């Protein structure tokens, strides 16, 4: 039967074949097939969200914040179940999945507080007039979210969109559809019917939602998909937010401890099996410490491969991409001192891999590999490393490890990225936001600034009308000025 969107607090029901089949990344076993939405379901979801939009926009901001707090409480209660689904569909260890869900709860709570105090600005004009701006919701928001940190990333966009008065259609990644649907079932009851809907599907469903008559599209995923979505938004007039691919550099200066720097590099390259948007994707190390650094990084990778802490990649297709990048580097003269080969056995495992003697033209140095691979290129000077770090078509993030304040300031000024991290590959204060650049996307992601992305500004000018004919002409102000 065709998929339809129903106006219930459970969100969008999707019933259609043939569906999305998910395999366990650890064993290769088929776990389940999730129905995929068709064109009618997409159209119905947009219609339902459009009908619900005026009422939700008119809801008091404090009430919207209260609904978001209720959603956060429900999410916290459902954390074990959702973490289990995350582990089953993507291979992420349950403790890491639980940490991602805890971050999502905190994000929803943060937007529940920020939303009601999101305000416009007063403007200076005539002292007997009032000029100010009002932030209004854009309308219907389509959110297309990834699989690598599926709950935390989704809830950042969901929270900001809902608390500012938009209705939401969420399409989770087709790599974790059961988790996406379960997340919708947990969150939707906190909101009025039609305000938060979930639609399952792959690239065709994402394209249909992007081409629909909606008001804002937020996408976290590959640069290729982001470019298609940007083109679709240009045709429909939707406001488009994109956090897309990255090829984030790590620049290691000569004056840092090599073992510490290798530890930072390992965290950046191997965490979540390298499947993080801001993972370390390429490393430039000063020649003076290159030997010690490389040996320490090799040891870091070996420990992870020996103790089995490297989780599988999300699926075999991802592993094929990662190994193709490694094979390209090896064919061009790189050396794999640890890892670098597809392991025997079931699942989509890939070892923590250290590649030495890398050069500029290799795919691991120019593309987003998105796996547990640490490619190292030795540079003669800090300036040489910075020049290489500034190269490429991406602009998501970069990390600098240095004790030289002049080098740090030079790098901060030069790196063409949305986020620069100094002496820590991960971390940052709550509420931080950044603007990806180039093929890494556009628009603010997360933080208070994300509320601005989901609203549009109306400027208001108010002044008194002229006095009726025959009325006294003196104003109160003028009379008060009389002697």
UniProtKB/TrEMBL annotation:
Protein's UniProt keywords contain Oxidoreductase: yes
SUPFAM superfamilies attached to this UniProt entry: ALDH-like
Domain of life, source organism: Bacteria
Bias (Low complexity): 1-22
Region Disordered, residue ranges: 1-23
Residue ranges the record marks as coiled coil: none
Residue stretches making up the Aldehyde dehydrogenase domain: 20-460
Record key words, sorted: Oxidoreductase
PANTHER family the UniProt entry points to: ALDEHYDE DEHYDROGENASE-RELATED
Protein's recorded name: Acyl-CoA reductase-like NAD-dependent aldehyde dehydrogenase
Natural source organism: Pseudarthrobacter enclensis
């Amino acid at each position: 039967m065709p998929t339809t969107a129903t106006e219930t607090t459970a969100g969008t029901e999707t019933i259609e074949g043939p569906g999305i089949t998910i395999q366990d990344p650890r064993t290769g076993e088929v776990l389940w097939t999730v129905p995929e939405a068709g064109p009618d379901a997409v159209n119905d979801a947009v219609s339902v969200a459009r009908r619900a939009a005026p009422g939700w926009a008119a809801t008091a901001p404090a009430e919207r914040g209260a609904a978001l707090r209720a959603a956060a409480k429900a999410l916290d209660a459902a954390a074990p179940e959702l973490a289990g689904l995350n582990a089953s569909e993507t291979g992420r260890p349950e403790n890491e999945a639980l940490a991602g869900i805890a971050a999502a709860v905190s994000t929803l709570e943060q937007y529940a507080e920020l939303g009601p105090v999101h305000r416009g600005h007063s403007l200076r004009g005539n002292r007997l007039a009032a000029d100010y701006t009002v932030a209004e919701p854009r309308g219907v928001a389509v959110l297309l979210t990834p699989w690598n940190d599926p709950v935390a990333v989704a809830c950042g966009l969901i929270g900001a969109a809902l608390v500012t008065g938009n209705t939401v259609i969420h399409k989770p990644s087709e790599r974790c559809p059961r988790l996406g649907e379960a997340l919708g079932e947990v969150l939707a009851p906190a909101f009025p019917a039609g305000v938060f809907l979930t639609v399952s599907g792959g690239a065709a469903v994402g394209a249909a939602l992007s081409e629909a008559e909606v008001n804002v599209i937020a996408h976290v995923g590959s640069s290729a998909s982001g470019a298609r979505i940007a083109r679709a938004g240009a045709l429909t007039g939707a406001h488009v937010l994109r956090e897309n691919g990255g090829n984030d550099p790590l620049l290691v200066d000569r004056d840092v401890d090599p073992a510490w720097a290798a530890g930072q590099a390992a965290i950046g390259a191997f965490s979540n099996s390298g499947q993080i948007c801001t993972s370390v994707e390429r490393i430039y190390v000063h020649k003076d410490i290159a030997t010690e650094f490389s040996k320490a990084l090799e040891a870091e990778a070996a420990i992870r491969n020996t103790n089995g802490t490297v989780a599988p990649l999300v699926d075999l297709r991802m592993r094929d991409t990662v190994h193709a990048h490694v094979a390209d580097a090896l064919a061009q003269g790189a050396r794999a001192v640890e890892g670098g080969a597809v392991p025997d056995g079931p699942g989509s495992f890939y070892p923590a891999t250290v590649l030495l003697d890398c050069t500029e033209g290799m795919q691991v140095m120019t593309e987003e590999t998105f796996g547990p691979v640490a490619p190292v290129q030795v540079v003669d000077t800090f300036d040489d490393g910075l020049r290489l770090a500034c190269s490429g078509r991406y602009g998501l993030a970069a990390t600098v490890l240095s004790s030289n304040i002049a080098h740090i300031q030079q790098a901060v000024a030069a790196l063409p990225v949305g986020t620069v991290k100094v002496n820590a590959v991960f971390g940052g204060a709550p509420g931080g936001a950044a603007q990806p650049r180039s093929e890494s996307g556009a628009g603010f992601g997360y933080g208070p600034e994300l509320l601005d992305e989901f609203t549009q500004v109306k400027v208001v000018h108010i002044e008194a009308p002229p006095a009726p004919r025959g009325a006294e002409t003196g104003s109160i102000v003028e009379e008060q000025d009389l002697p």
